[in-house]
Amino acid sequence: MVAGGGSAGGLGDTVEEGRVGDMGSSGAGGSSVGRVVRAPFEGRTWREFGYLMLGLPLSTLYFSLAITGVSLGAGLLVTFLGVPVLAGVLAMCRGFGRVERARVRGMLGHDIAEPAPIRAAKDGAIARMAALLKSGSAWRHALYSVIHFPWAVFAFCVALTFWAYGWAMLLYPLWFWVFPAFTDQPGLQLFQNGDSYTFYLDSPLAIVATCATGLALTLATPWVVRALTTVDRVLVSGLLGPSRLANRVSELESDRGVMVDTAAADLRRIERDLHDGAQARLVALAMDLGLAKEKLAQDPRAAARMVDEAHGEVKIALQELRDLARGIHPAVLTDRGLDAALSSVASRCAVPVRVAVDLPSRPAAAIEGIAYFTVSELLQNVSKHAGARTAGVDVWKSGERLLIQVADDGVGGAGAGAVAGSGLAGLAERLDAVDGVLVVDSPVGGGTTVTAELPWRTAA
To answer: How many C-beta atoms lie closer than 10 Å to residue 350's C-beta?
Structure first.
């Protein structure tokens, strides 16, 4: 493979790949130490700590009401009364879910989508209760109300212990005087072995060691709290958000919209190319032939020149139609597959292009077509924007995925100039519509490498 860069500067248009710039810019150890020192005083840390402290009383309420309601409803199922009780409990648990999503959004800064509303098949209280009882989302809310309680107890105790002991030990030099002033002890009693030995934190060395231990705990507490709230984020996202099926349906609806828009844009492009290109040329050709026909009897030589010019126009029109047909779906792709079709595209590139296709068989026609047009668009960008001397195209199969890599040795630096809606942004949307992925890498001065990944489907 050609190791290059890969996003916009080398390939002109691109989609901004989410490199973690802030991590890179934070540099070496200096700013990492600064982050650790600032963490105990940051608003985020206090919000996360407050989230864990508030979680225990709320979770206790959720657990008590959910367990009581489900137990009562299950016990009453021998009569019809159990059905409305269970339905009411599930509706109540969905209300708990709204509170928790709002809490996560406001205190943890993590936005979780609302689950799909529960729709009854028809009007009426019975239908609404049946819809609630059949709703997987409602039962997940009830499950959250139960299983979050033991986790909330654990998180509350761990966070409070770290926080209280850390700050108490860190500030010990400021308050240890309380013991000799108001008690008979010289300092905080740490250990006692009957009446024979008692260890107090009263010496300068013990006070410094206590303060150092408190500092370590205080600096570690924000990261412990962050880890605990990460588990809460996972629980809320998994149980109180939309289901995977609902997310997938939403994804497919969005992808379908992208495909429809892409198809409409392609049709408009074809119509524009026909109208402005071959159609206009053929209209002019018909007019020239009409004039030649009129001059045939009066001035045969002039008519012959006009026919000769018309013959040249016919050749140009035919070439434009061939180019247009190739842009819709090239015949060489249908007849000979990706290897020959990509070699044909590479031969028209402004720089020398090496093509290597290693596939055990031909993929499905739709995947083959998307792969062809992906490489075609990337090579066009290489020709126009990369400033490259050479480029390479590699196509291979890995597992159940078709991988395409287009690399050049151009100027790179694509990420800095990437803008939404640019050429490769549109290409990324097209790939995403078929569960594909576009990865772009383009260090400044290091060339550009774009890797596309498509699902593999064998041709029928």
So the answer is: 13
pLDDT of residue 153: 96
Which of 423, 378, 386, 429 has its CA nearest to residue 404? Answer: 378
Give the least confident one: 86-100, 146-160, 191-205, 253-267: 253-267
Residue 305 in domain:
yes
Both 322 and 417 in a single domain? Answer: no
Q: Are residues 233 and 267 in the same domain?
A: no
Q: For residue 260, is it within any domain?
A: yes
Domain co-membership, 73 together with 99:
yes
Mode of pairing for the β-strands spanning 188-193 and 197-201: antiparallel
Tokens of 159: 């966070």
Residue 388 lies in a domain: yes
d(CA 387, CA 389): 7
How would you class 20 by CB atoms within 10 Å of its CB: exposed for 0-12, middle for 13-18, buried for 19 or more?
exposed
129 and 231 within one domain: yes
pLDDT for residue 129:
85
Q: Do both 233 and 265 map to the same domain?
A: no
Distances (CA, A) of 118 to 34, 48, 111, 133, 197: 48, 32, 21, 10, 68
Identify whether residues 271 and 357 lie together within a single domain.
no
195 burial type by CB count under 10 A (0-12 exposed, 13-18 middle, 19+ buried): exposed
**Domain edge (last residue) among 240, 271, 291:** 240
Calpha distance 205→157 (Å, rounded) = 30
More confident residue, 15 or 440: 440
Q: 165 vs 169, 199, 445, CA distance in Å?
A: 6, 19, 52
Structural domain that includes position 451 = 336-455
Number of structural domains in the chain: 3
Q: Which of 212, 240, 268 is the last residue in one of the domains?
A: 240
Residue 65, judged by CB atoms within 10 A of its CB (0-12, 13-18, 19+), counts as middle
Angle between the 136-170 and 204-240 helix axes, to the nearest 10 degrees? Answer: 170
User: Is residue 428 classed exposed, middle or buried when 0-12, 13-18 and 19+ CB atoms within 10 A define those classes?
Assistant: buried
How far apart CA 397 and CA 390 sit, in angstroms, is 24
| Least confident interval from 61-65, 248-252, 263-267, 279-283 | 248-252
Provide the 10 A C-beta neighbour count for residue 188: 19
Structure tokens at 196: 């024979």
